[in-house]
Amino acid sequence: MPSNPNRRIAIVDDDDALRDALAWLFSTRNHDVQPFPNAEALLADYTPDRFSCLLLDVRMPGMSGLELFQKLREYPYLPPVVFLTGHGDVPMAVGALKDGATDFIEKPFNDNDIVDLVERSIAADALKRTQWQAKNAVEARLESLTPREREVMKLILTGRLNKQIADDLSISMKTVEVHRARILEKMHVKTAMELAALLRDANITV
After folding, report:
1. Which structural domain range is residue 127 located in?
2. Total structural domains within the chain
3. What would the mean pLDDT of 62-81 be, rounded to a whole number?
4. pLDDT at 89 exceeding the cut of 90
5. Does one domain contain both 103 and 171?
6. Where is the HTH luxR-type domain positioned along the sequence (predicted)?
7. What pLDDT score was predicted for residue 86?
8. Which of 16, 63, 92, 155 fits 160 for a cystine, CB–CB 3.0-4.6 Å?
9. Are residues 183 and 125 in the same domain?
């Protein structure tokens, strides 16, 4: 069965046997799995949209799973993070939950239990991820606007008419009309109301 790019999992654990076993387990459940022997290997080529879920061992040589988690929190998006813990690591994992981790599972764990946990985590993350991706798309469109177009757009969003905007900026009405048309085209909307709704839904203030 082919892997699904929307079900991509990173497994970060210094235990070769456990890492390989988890990689095999999730690959048999139609997940695209990428194992890493340590935190540094993951961070060397990491982007927040690359994985649907991260499985992190709490205790590893060098950077620990908890330290890696704090690094991951610095990125603009945090995918679901599930910690693999030993009995003595549970209090630390609970603390990580307060900082935004999704869950933890204690070793030794049942295969079905860890698969179910990851599946739930990915499903719960779906809406949040979709909203983040939509916001990124809108921000990319905003980046395509010139400084003058952004200036005109702000006035459009306050409800100013073309003639008023022309007076405000000491430019011709024809120039305002050209800017308005380009703004709507670049933002992929047809009206000022659609533009306002797009920015509101993406939770973007300009």
Report:
1. 4-133
2. 2
3. 95
4. no
5. no
6. 138-203
7. 83
8. 155
9. no
End position of a domain, from candidates 82, 100, 133:
133
Per the CB < 8 A criterion, the answer to whether 136 and 128 are in contact is: no
For 117-144, what is each residue's pLDDT tens digit? Answer: 999 999 989 888 888 999 999 999 999 9
Contacts (Cβ under 8 Å, ≥6 apart) of 76: 48, 132
* DSSP state letter for 168: H
| HSE toward the beta carbon, residue 144, CA cutoff 13 A | 14
Up-side HSE of residue 24: CA atoms within 13 Å toward CB? Answer: 7
Asked whether residue 1 carries a pLDDT value surpassing 50, the answer given is no
> What is the pTM assigned to this prediction?
0.77
Burial profile 14-42: b = 16 or more Cβ within 10 angstroms, e = fewer:
beeebbeebbebbeeeebbbbbbbbbeeb
Written as six digits, the tokens of 136 are: 């990124």
Give me the phi and psi of 96, to 5 degrees please.
-65, -30
